[in-house]
Amino acid sequence: MDRGNTKQEILEASLDLFSVQGFEATSISQIAGAVGIRKASLYSHFENKQAILDALVKDVLGQYAEHSIFAKTDWEKYNDAEEKPVLTSDAAAQMILGQIRYILHDPHISKARKMLAIEQFQNEELARLQTKQNYSDVMQYFTGFVKYLIRNGVLAGEDPEIMAAQLCLPVSTWINLCDREPDREPEVMELVNKHIRQFFRMYDARRA
Amino acid sequence: MDRGNTKQEILEASLDLFSVQGFEATSISQIAGAVGIRKASLYSHFENKQAILDALVKDVLGQYAEHSIFAKTDWEKYNDAEEKPVLTSDAAAQMILGQIRYILHDPHISKARKMLAIEQFQNEELARLQTKQNYSDVMQYFTGFVKYLIRNGVLAGEDPEIMAAQLCLPVSTWINLCDREPDREPEVMELVNKHIRQFFRMYDARRA
DNA sequence: CATTGACTAACGAACGATAGTTAGTTATAA
DNA sequence: TTATAACTAACTATCGTTCGTTAGTCAATG
Fold first, then answer.
1. How far away is chain B from the Cα of A71, in angstroms, using its nearest Cα?
2. What confidence tens digit (pLDDT) does each residue in A89-133 have?
3. Which of A193, A200, B26, B174 is least surrounded by CB atoms within 10 angstroms?
């Protein structure tokens, strides 16, 4: 009678539903139906409904920490490297467009992002998590990136944090837009492309 | 037995609750309790629960269209004016900081913004509304602003839309951050200030 | 001026449906 | 044989909603 990985299936089905309807609007029966079991069977795997959300926050979003480009890339490591990637606006645009496509289409990341958008006002823990994933981690990554570009004489500027904000925060807004209206992705990608090239032109070291 | 403006009180109480818990998680009893009546009495004013949300979307967000700076200001009108406001980075920073403080603290606007953030994935109408208020209207306003500054020889740049995005979209992200974590407003305001001055420096017409 | 009647907005009580949850049972796999 | 994970059945609470009633408001009427 054991189906093997039911617990994981419950988490996935829950994320599917929570990321569209939200936690409160999703019923235990709905989750059970999506998994293909009776609702009472859920309680063999989770103490109660809240425990599913808690596990999602810990698990799926912990998974994020492992797989996210923003959480794991360290630009310092390229300091002594012979071959340095991403030193032109073209390479940067390609890199960032690739990252956007990835985090936009990766099922776990995109669903987790939507769920957090819905649940961000529920409690302080979820609020802080949303800030971390949608803002702090991204800002930290791009601040490192900008510093790397300055060190390598590509860009010039006094405040890397502000430069990073100007580079990545518009992109954050565009990602939210694509989450709501996926049809607009091509149009948004075009804007991102123009934006990055413009950014590199304005902060070009040879211009200062 | 008539309390005068019960219908309006119901809408306000509903917005209060929806902007924190969301629509589904808020019960009719909760709304009635906040207003100070029994839940059955709500049905003297609204056909059903959904009708409250519909009225909020139409009413409160229609109110936005009337009062929002972004929906009503037209930069064209300053073309022939003798005294032109906002021609320096200092004035722009002050203006934008004032606007942020306003839309951040105005109770209707901030609650409507949070409610839309929670409900944006419910249906396409709410998704489009969220895009309009959080993105399109703001972008249109700032694109006009940037064009106005270019016409008046303050800024120089080829693509006013991209410039507007670089100016206002980071601010959008910061406003969302303050919605979640109001304590961080001072820190955010400082970033906004730096950001705007940097923006004006980079696109300064005398630099081109 | 007092009475009436229509109208409105509140009420208590109850509805069926569904929520989350528990208990007890059965089948399967180790 | 034992532990686990599924099941059926049932629980209580609450959901959104409806019904019939009551208490005020106001205009028209006598």
1. 19
2. 889 889 999 999 999 999 999 999 999 999 999 999 999 999 999
3. A193
> For A170, which of B159, B165, B181 is closest by C-beta distance?
B165
The pLDDT score that the predictor gives to residue B100 is: 94
The string of DSSP codes covering A99-130 is HHHHHHH-HHHHHHHHHHHHHTTT-HHHHHHH
Q: How large is the C-alpha radius of gyration of chain A? A: 20
In the predicted model, is pLDDT for residue A162 greater than 80? yes
pLDDT at A56: 96
Q: Does the pTM exceed 0.85?
A: yes
Residue A1 is predicted with a pLDDT of: 61
Task: Say whether the CB atom of A128 is under 7 angstroms from strand D.
Answer: no
Q: Please indicate whether, in this complex, the C-beta atoms of A118 and B114 are within 8 angstroms of each other.
A: no
Q: Write a three-state SS string for A136-165.
A: HHHHHHHHHHHHHHHHCCCECCCCHHHHHH
User: pLDDT tens digits, residue range B92-139?
Assistant: 889 999 999 999 999 999 999 999 999 999 999 999 999 999 999 999
The more confident residue out of A81 and A4 is A4
Count Cα neighbours of A29 within 13 Å in the Cβ-side half-sphere: 1
CA-CA-CA-CA torsion sign (B55, B58, B59, B61):
positive
Q: What average pLDDT is seen over chain A?
A: 92
For C8, nearest residue by CA–C1' is B2
Question: For strand D, is any atom closer than 7 Å to the CB of B4?
Answer: no
Q: How far is CA A68 from CA A73, A103, A147, A149, B158, in A?
A: 9, 8, 20, 21, 35
Q: How far apart are CA A18 and CA A41, in angstroms?
A: 19
Query: Mutating which of B198, B199, B200, B207 best tests the A interface, going by the most A Cβ atoms within 10 A?
Result: B198
